[in-house]
Request: fold
Amino acid sequence: MESKFSLPTEKVELPSKGVLYSKDSPLSSGHVEMKYMTAKEEDILTNQNYLRDGTAVDRLLKSLLVDKSIKFNDLLLGDKNAIMIAARVLSYGKDYEIMYEDTNYTVDLSKLKSKYIDESLVKEGKNKFTFNLPATDTVVTYKLLTHGDEKAIDREVEGLKKLDKKSDTSSSTRLKYMITSVNDLTETKDIRNFVDNYLLAKDARELRKKYLETSPDIDMVTTVDTVDGGQEDIEVPVTLRFFWPDL
Reply:
């Protein structure tokens, strides 16, 4: 039986333009269709179990995607950020109140700009990029991380913390997931051995910079008027008020 009700939807452009997804993925179209938040989605945001295990926002974004065949774990992190910004605007409006240096500011989220993928860097539609580490001239290939990679990294880091509560391996673990080959060696054990024992700090820093240059994303920098009459560029913080503006 056809419903008498309908929901408005919006198309959201992905910063990756869809070029890094397989052709059979709906994400390869370069956009997703999202519906406006309903009372059902607000239940997700207030579910105490989801809040405790940190899944509330991910569950919300999945629920707002019209095409349920989209594999959420396949989303590149920059594309996920674009969807998150769109979800906030569609649900609670474009105005987002933040605090910076003891002053309240209202950020217009609709004015945040997308940083699109440079398609000239993409070879054969693959999520694979090559970089020569400048200090050692080691040739590595790397990929842009997905939501699924991010979850795996978090699990691994948390597991290592259980063995040593004072440890923080997030930086090196992320590199192990980013790098896909070292001098044509593609085995996971070889990549992990390289990161743990042979990757110089200066090379790691340059690789991270190159990764950020390559990655499509949303530019979260905005300009605010300072109390002394000037202007300053600041990064928009994503706090609890982002999806819970009445908190």
User: Anything to note?
Assistant: The chain has a mean pLDDT of 92. The CA atoms of residues 156 and 162 lie 10 Å apart.
